[in-house]
Amino acid sequence: MENRLNTGNSNFTAMMEFVLLGFSDSPNIQWILFGIFLVIYLTILISNSVIILITKIEPALQTPMYFFLSNFSFLEICYVTVTIPRMLMDLVTQKGNISLLACATQMCFVLMFGGSECLLLTVMAYDRYVAICNPLHYPLVMNHKVCVQLVTASWVSGVPVMVGQTCQIFSLPFCGSNTINHFFCDIPPVLKLACGDTFANEIAVYVVAVIFIMVPFLLIVVSYGKIISSILKLSSARGRAKAFSTCSSHLIVVVLFYGTATITYLQPKPNQSEGIGKLISLFYTVLIPTLNPIIYTLRNKDIMMALKKLATKLLR
Prior knowledge:
The protein is mainly α. It has one domain (17-295): Rhopdopsin 7-helix transmembrane proteins (Up-down Bundle), CATH 1.20.1070. It has helices at residues 30-57, 64-93, 100-133, 138-141, 144-156, 159-170, 187-193, 199-232, 237-265, 274-298, 301-315, and strands at residues 2-7, 10-15, 17-20, 97-99, 179-180. The strands form 2 sheets. The chain has a 3-stranded mixed beta sheet with strand order 4-3-5. A two-stranded antiparallel sheet has the order 1-2. A hairpin with a 2-residue loop joins strand 1 and strand 2 (10-15). Helix 1 runs parallel beside helix 10 and helix 3 (100-133) runs parallel beside helix 8 (199-232). It is a multi-pass membrane protein. It is found in: Cell membrane. Residues 47-296 form the G-protein coupled receptors family 1 profile domain.
């Protein structure tokens, strides 16, 4: 829908809504995709809710590492809820109409939750660094007050930046096509629809991506460099194996999440084909949140034991 205003001899066209194409290029498999994404969404909700539940009720999991993991699981639920329900609705209705305000709101929440994930993954890496490299001071350094402050900072720090970023993008004129070749309102496909010079916006995207993706990633790399160095100094092979096992699941999640986010946001407009962009977005908005609970549970003996205890109680 468009509003046309006549001002003198010129026509000004203000876009009032966009159309998300989603997976409309595959009309014969819409219901199959709906079924797949519905199962994936329910799996993400249930598995992350179970992680939150067991970290709250199991005394052995009342540690900073699992406090951060429960917050990460809740963040994952929020993150996927911004995109997947809307995608499911579009698959059912076969319509992708989304108002400008709804599109801006979705983009803002995707950026906020994504930024919070980047920061929280960095906090989790710092927690492992202190636990392995400075174990004697770990209870003092990572006390409950510090943990709450770190989690709060992860949730809140990116809010003003992401709100500002969204406002800047949606203050641009959209006067051409209103069709977004994507399944949600993400920065690269929306920027492609803007008319006029978007150079300043692209620079802003790069700056924010460096602050919220590259800087945290470098901090994680430094943390794991020190962690690996400390692990290799351990004399006990069993101690090395245990230390590696507590870090490996987090490292897998970091590589998957940061890898796809970097490809998306560090080349925002001209270099990325829409098909590839959509595929990469599926990775970090759908596939990785599905894999995260599996990675954290299957590779963690404490969580597996807590799950068995919970299952035993429920089956009595």
